Amino acid sequence: MAAEHVDVLIIGAGLSGIGAACHLQAECPGKSYAILESRHAIGGTWDLFRYPGIRSDSDMYTLGYKFRPWPNAQAIADGPSIREYVLDTAAEHGVEPHIRFHHRVVRARWSSEDVRWTVEAERTDTGETVEITCDFVLSCTGYYRYDEGFTPEFEGAEDFTGRIVHPQFWSEDIDYEDQRVVVIGSGATAVTLVPAMAQRAAHVTMLQRSPSYVVSLPGEDPLANGLRRFLPQRIVYPIVRWKNVFLTMASFQLSRRRPKVMKALIRKALERRLPAGYDIDTHFKPRYNPWDQRLCLVPDDDLFEAISSGKAAIVTDRVERFTERGIRLESGEELGADLIVTATGLNLLPLGGISFSVDGEEVRFPEKLSYKGMMLSDVPNLSFAVGYTNASWTLKCELTFEYTCRVLNHMDENGYDVCIPHNRDPSIKPEPIIDFNSGYVLRAIDTFPRQGSREPWRLYQNYPRDIVSLRYRPIEDGALEFRRSARLGDLPVDEREVQLPA
After folding, report:
1. From the CB of residue 399, how many other CB atoms can be counted at a distance below 10 Å?
2. Strand partners, 110
3. Quick one: which of 167, 360, 376, 399 has the fewest CB in 10 Å?
4. Whole-angstrom Cα distance, residue 145 to residue 142?
5. What is the reported pLDDT for 437?
């Protein structure tokens, strides 16, 4: 029996996958598509993560979709609200019937002879294997492993008599009421967990090996709330969206060009929010410059209030070993704990860990260059959605979807059925695709595609620049090549405009 065929296959039904489907329906209305989702629900990250306090670390005016204004007052939103937003978007745009749940994609094979992808998925509910063919693959899998988080080996972990849990696998049966909690980590997850758990726990300690930069923003956007009194949401949303884009860009550029100034501004804010005499140098002064790693966002000073109230504390030290009663530190101090939360990071995974091959040859990601941060050199009819590291994820993803739709329409208008990025410039030098020194990045960066030293292979992490590049510049730029296969006939180039496929 022949495999089912669609024009475009979207992998993943999270924030990115639902956005991709909405763009495809609006901008390529004639295209058939399906979404393969390995889990049982829409939402991706926002359905998987259920730990206390889970929320966005970007404002929802930029993390939300351009085409569907964020409806709530909270600009820094909690996880359930974001999940509901994604679900409502899928229902409102009729995306749900296109989703195949419990379909974990394991491999995709491109055939130049057939001019299509054959995608193999395992049913996570029944164990059977299914195949579906498509003309174009759009991967919206994110960049980390859903089945495991990163937890270092802690000596003596088996001796601890309490419970140890990674936030990625938080479950409803975890009771921390009036418990002593130690959260290991200093990143966005840790600074989210600590104030949330402090509301019910006896005490929460954030144990960090080294500090991160932590900044506070209002949970609600005062400009948005003010404008809503006089203007409709459809006008307020883009104004606040662009305001936040430029503020984030200014923060990033100031950090890169004048790091001492940015450090001073962050420190001044900490001095205003923490108790007098607090040891900022030990607990909030990182060894790196701002934006060498992503800044940790605290809404409405919640972490600082938890520290000031005595319900939470930060300890900067290294773990020597776990004990029966808690954690012994290298300094000799022992932290008592009933529950230990290892907020120690994620394991990154390029393109969902899917095995790709082109005409029987495996696609080795580290050998490929990333074209415009969304396609791979010498891999046909494939794009992938990865957001910014210095701004909201969705900003870049939506530009990727727009550009993918431009490419698909360009192919239809000109009678092409293959597009493939190809680098013909030997002076282009490969570089790591992510310019961050975070541990989770450094552990996995060698498994990812590379970026090039110049456009269109360079990833600039600059939203306005990408708007020009992806929305307005010509599709045919000398690097993205288009072909017509024998399946559509071998017509001369000057006849293509009158010999389009049906």
Report:
1. 23
2. 117, 358
3. 360
4. 9
5. 64
Q: Check: CB of residue 92 under 8 Å from CB of residue 112.
A: no
Joined tokens for residue 137: 């693959």
pLDDT of residue 497 exceeding 70: no
**Would you give the distance in Å from CA 215 to the centre of its chain?**
20
- Cβ–Cβ < 8 Å for 395, 62: yes
Report the alpha-carbon distance of residue 62 to residue 393 in Å, rounded.
Answer: 8
pTM above 0.70, yes or no: yes
- Decide if 213 contacts 266 (C-beta within 8 A): yes
Asked if 432 and 370 count as a contact pair (C-beta separation under 8 A), the reply is: no
Token pair, residue 171, equals 């479950």
Widest pairwise Cα distance in the chain: 79
Give SS3 for 243.
Answer: helix
Start-to-end CA span in the chain (Å)? 25
Gap between the Cα atoms of 99 and 37, Å rounded: 7
% of the chain residues with pLDDT over 70 = 95
Q: What is the DSSP secondary structure assignment for residue 210, as one 8-state letter?
A: S
The label of the residue with tokens 């929320």 reads: 55
Contact 405, 159 (CB under 8 A): no
Question: CA–CA separation, 76 vs 218, rounded Å?
Answer: 8
Structural contact between residues 33 and 9, judged by C-beta atoms closer than 8 angstroms: yes
Residue 211 contacts residue 316 (beta carbons within 8 Å): yes
Tell me phi and psi for residue 293, to 5 degrees.
-130, 160
Nearest Cα neighbor of 342 from 208, 444, 436 is: 208
Q: Quick one: which of 18, 7, 69 has its CA closest to 47?
A: 18
* Residue 380: cis peptide before it, omega within 30 degrees of 0: no
d(CA 151, CA 135): 39
Q: Are strands 346-348 and 144-149 parallel, antiparallel or unpaired?
A: antiparallel
Beta-strand pair 355-358/361-362: antiparallel
**What is the pLDDT of the chain when averaged over all its residues?**
92
Q: What's the pLDDT score for residue 494?
A: 39
